[in-house]
Every structure is written in C-alpha cells, then in structure tokens.
Specification:
mainly beta
Length: 202
Amino acid sequence: GIQVEQLEFRIGDDTDVLAWDFDALYGSDELKLVWRSDAEYAIKEDGFETLENQIRLQTPISDFFDAVIGFSADMPKGPDRFAGVVGFHGLSQQWFEIDADLFLSDKPSFRFEAEYEALITNRIILVPSIEVSVPFTDDDGRDIGAFGPTVEIGARLSYDLIDRAASPYIGVHYEQAFGETADRLNAAGEDSGAVFFVIGTR
C-alpha cells in the first residue's frame, strides 16, 4: 500500500514550494519494508530544498510501536548525505503519532516528529504537527551548525471525501532554524525562517 501524509503546495512571501511526504509499504504487521520519501521543491529556485529517501524495515516492539532500521539518502541542493537510520514509530498516549529517528554517519543527527488528528466532526479534522531536527556536528556544505536545531510547525484542516481515503486540506506551515544554523544561513544571505499558506491532500 501507499500512505501519503502530505502532498501540498506551499505559498510563501519569497518562494512557493511543492512538498510531499509519503510511505510505500510492503509486508505484514509483523515485518514491513517501507520506502519513505520526503521532499520540498522550491519553484523559484527551480531545485530541491530537501529530498530524502529512506528504505527501512519496521517490526513491532509493543502493541503501538514499531522499531525501525534502514538506510537514508539525503540529496537536496548541496552535497549528498547518506546515513544509517535507527528509531521507532507509533502511537503514544492520547493518540499522538510519533516518529523518532537517529541518523548515523560522519554527520550524525536526530529527528523527532509528532502529529495529532483532532476530529472536529466525523469528516472535518484538524492536524497539528511538529518536527525538530538536531545536527550533532557542523556541516559546512549545507550551512548547518552543530546543535543548531531546525523546527517545523504546521496545522492543516482537512475534509474526508471518501472514507478517509482522500482528504484535501488547507493550512499553515512555519519553519525556523536556531542557534549556529540560523547564524550560518543569515551569513550566507538566506532566511532562517519562513511562513507558508498550504493547500493539498492526504
């Protein structure tokens, strides 16, 4: 099967972005092979700001969580980065969907993602989300400073058309770099933060 969490067009002050986040899955509840793709394509710059693909195996470690192990290829503008991935994915108390991954390479990092589906009606759903990425070392090729996190916060209001198989949405998306990462981006003449209006489907 395939699960598309985000397929959206982001409208910003300086540039517009086409973004997607999907999983293609094969296997059973006991063992899944997952291809995960996450990308942001900046239309004005005519290039990918982020382009990450993972091949990962997932197997249950409890009723609500899977352990994850795999390989990541991160190939946006700038130098390519390849890493091993270990982590976990599942549902926490109060039904927050959690994804925590440790990327193991000469440029190690950690990423934590959480989202929640708040049912306003049986068909109208508000989905707040947060993603925090923390690099553990400097990456001069990408203007990333050690322990300078990047935070993305979003809120998307969707409407279920076909038994939740397709849910178009509108919303907002905010991203901001902090610490040395923000300093490096500003020194390179790039913005360390941006706000977008989004329209898309899941």
